[in-house]
Write a structure and sequence with these properties.
Elements: E1 15-17, H1 23-29, E2 35-39, H2 49-58, E3 62-66, H3 80-93, E4 98-101, E5 104-107, E6 110-116, H4 122-139, E7 143-146, H5 161-172, E8 175-179, H6 180-190, H7 194-200, E9 206-210, E10 215-216, E11 221-222, H8 231-241
Parallel strand pairs: 1-2, 2-3, 3-4, 4-7, 7-8, 8-9
Antiparallel strand pairs: 5-6, 10-11
């Protein structure tokens, strides 16, 4: 699809997630990449090496900000100090739009460091839209919300996830960061047809697409971003959405991805420039008694 108002009418092409272990390679080798997606929270600081490296990268590349702790689905309003720091970073990077997840994850100042699914209720639609509008008005640029993968559902839900997403973005008048893998993961975990979800997405609001792989367990699929994307799955999805396909993607490659073991000089389709976040840990316990691996959506 052409550029739209939810990505500030930009033609950025294909981007890759910026990860700390690859700073040296990026600055030294200057790989061919259209743009980098940065985790906003990593750079919402007063100074230090992170900002120094970011400024060096900004001299050579464009960046787009992606957040992991705004928690649009929290019942509480967005934290004003967090918004102040976010707006300051927006001015520094010049990001045309920014994104975060349609989920909740904190209560009374206590953070789970996870992207928890929401109850799909009309009440939740209202408070999520309220929070998104407040963030969008504060930062002064378009905001896109990302659909998350989920491993539990609420009995109180009054609609499907795709209906919920559509209602929220319409009332907030915001964009969508469409994560194709998350749709697939949730469809397997909750046994729904991913094509129904895709067909229901308001394509004119899609600002960006995320593409990454997942881990298959015996009883569930986990969104880990540390495996190659499932090619047959994406090839099956693509023809159904070809007329509305957005032109910008941010593939995210985990530490164990085979691409990381290849030659470093490659273009954006296979660039080894991502790794898991060292700071966030998922807290969800699964039926087999395992705990999820480190959070790599960061």
């Amino acid at each position: 699809m052409p550029a739209n108002r939810f990505n500030a009418h930009t033609e950025y092409g294909i981007g890759i997630g910026l990860r700390i272990p690859h700073y040296g390679h990026i600055l030294g080798e200057k790989p061919v990449v259209d743009w980098f997606e940065i985790i906003s929270e990593n750079y919402m600081v007063e100074g230090g090496r992170a900002l120094q490296v970011l400024d060096q990268i900004l001299e050579q590349y464009r960046v787009v900000q992606h957040g992991v702790s705004m928690y649009f689905g929290n019942a509480a309003r967005p934290n004003r100090d967090h918004l102040r720091k976010l707006k300051r970073l927006v001015k520094r990077t010049g990001t045309p739009w920014l994104s975060d997840h349609l989920c909740w994850g904190s209560v009374d100042g206590r953070f789970t460091h996870d992207l928890l699914p929401m109850p799909y209720t009309w009440e939740a639609v209202e408070w999520a839209a309220r929070n998104i509008r407040e963030v969008q008005d504060t930062v002064g640029i378009p905001v896109a919300v990302e659909n998350v993968s989920s491993y539990a559902e609420f009995h109180d839900s009054e609609m499907t996830e795709w209906e919920f997403l559509s209602e929220v973005v319409e009332r907030a008048d915001c964009g969508i960061l469409l994560d194709v893998n998350n749709i697939y993961v949730s469809s397997k975990n909750h046994t729904f047809d991913p094509y129904i979800y895709l067909d229901a997405v308001p394509a004119d609001r899609v600002a960006q697409i995320h593409i990454a792989g997942h881990t298959q367990y015996e009883r569930y699929i986990l969104d880990t971003h540390d495996h190659p994307r499932a090619r047959p799955r994406l090839e099956n999805v693509r023809p159904r959405h070809r007329p509305h396909r957005p032109h910008r993607h941010a593939p995210r490659v985990g530490r164990s991805h085979p691409e990381l073991r290849r030659s470093p000089r490659r273009g954006p389709q296979g660039q080894p420039l991502s790794s898991p976040c060292r700071h966030h840990r998922r807290v969800t316990a699964f039926p087999e008694g395992r705990r999820a691996p480190p959070c790599v959506s960061c």
